[in-house]
Amino acid sequence: MNLIDMSTEGWTQEEVIEFRKLLNQQIKNARKESRHDACMLCGKKGGFCNSHTIPQFCLENIAWNGTLNSFNTLIDSELLANDSGVNNAGTFHIICKPCDGKAFQDYEKEAAFETRPTEKALNQIALKTALRDIYKHETELAMFEACKQMVKDKSPALAFFAQIMFNAQINAKKRDIQECYEVYNVSKSCLTNPKSWIRLVSYDKLDYTSPIAFQGMIALVTGVNGELINNNFNHKSNYKLEYLHIAIFPLKESTAVILFMDSHNTRYAHFENYIANITQEQRLKIINRIIFLYTEDYYLSKQLDSETINWLQETAKLIQDLATTDPKKSVKNAVKDYDLRRDICIPNLFSKEYAIKKATVDGSRTNQEE
Ligand SMILES: [Zn+2]
Fold first, then answer.
1. pLDDT in tens, 20-51
2. How many Cβ atoms are within 10 Å of 345's Cβ, its own excluded?
3. How many Å lie between the centroid of ligand 1 and the Cα of residue 257?
């Protein structure tokens, strides 16, 4: 849903370099602008650490020479780097090192997923996701505001157009931030004062390592019945988006795939019922589809062959930007575009054929089954 046009067709090499420089400068400024004073968990002022959203051990299970493929590999833009090192994949900087080492212990270990994850572990996953999303959305908000100001400064005559161009994005970001803070508040308070606010929707464990890692929360537009779950175009203050939390954790010799949500959610009733009553294979196909339709924060193993990567690239191109000026038309189109029954061919990375091949003692790769 966040896909932006990163095509550089027709650009000169100088223009690409110039734009890259500008973009990096903008990101740096926005991070400075949106920087917090104190740790979001303990409130202590001081340094922040490099926190990982997806546990580092999961990324290491699918890394190749310490690197991974990211969404940028799929859109193949010259403007962004294709590789992600395990050390900087999906990281954020708003909590301190002692908190990072302490607050997420129940889920940041392989043993947490040997059986169904505990509510404590799920709460920690939700908290970490919310922190990463707050960091991400606040940086993006600062970027939109800087761009708006830049247009205004360049030409006061364009001030009105700058409003029109950026206000919708700015307002949408503000709402995203507010919604993330709600998840942050409830999950943070549960660290010390546990209460039940989570409903586990599904938990699947595969006996091989899938080549994908993901952790995030997604507001599904529609499910598997053509029903509207979240209307992204409804900006009324009393309209709440309902999120589905997804965790895909590649482990040493297995994969844990978890869906959970706020137990107060009501609009997923049909989806939940459907998900609970299909085979594991069908369920994982749907989850795979959700990931590629809605997100860009996943990490892929470099072991995936070029044919599969090309196939995924085609899928990424299919994803349509929902930004439009006609809300009625958009919500109707969105339900159609995001229909999980839609017949789009996406390689199912949870299939055994894509399982990570383990390195043997002599350094060559062999299939996990062998
Ligand atoms: Zn702290």
1. 777 778 778 877 888 898 999 999 997 899 99
2. 9
3. 29
Reported as a single tens digit per residue, the pLDDT across 222-244 is 999 899 999 988 878 888 999 99
CA of 54 to the centre of ligand 1 (A): 19
Q: Is the pTM of this model over 0.85?
A: yes
Ligand 1 center to residue 119 CA distance, Å?
A: 22
Chain-centroid distance of CA 106 in Å reads: 21
Q: In this structure, how many other beta carbons lie within 10 angstroms of the beta carbon of residue 102?
A: 12
How many other CB atoms are found less than 10 A from the CB of residue 175? 17
Query: Which residues are found with C-beta within 5 Å of the ion, ligand 1?
Result: 39, 41-42, 96, 99
Q: Whole-angstrom Cα distance, residue 240 to residue 25?
A: 34
Domain ranges of the chain: 20-359
CA of 131 to the centre of ligand 1 (A): 12
| CB-based contact 177:221 (threshold 8 Å) | no
Q: Measured in angstroms, how far is the CA atom of residue 92 from the centroid of ligand 1?
A: 14
- What is the structure's pLDDT at 369? 44
Measured from the Cβ of residue 116, the count of other Cβ atoms closer than 10 Å reads: 13
- The rounded Å distance from CA 101 to ligand 1 centre is 10
Quickly tell me which residue has 């790769």 as its tokens.
365
Task: Identify which of 74-78, 201-205, 221-225 has the greatest average pLDDT.
Answer: 201-205
* CA dist., res. 182 & res. 106, Å (int): 22
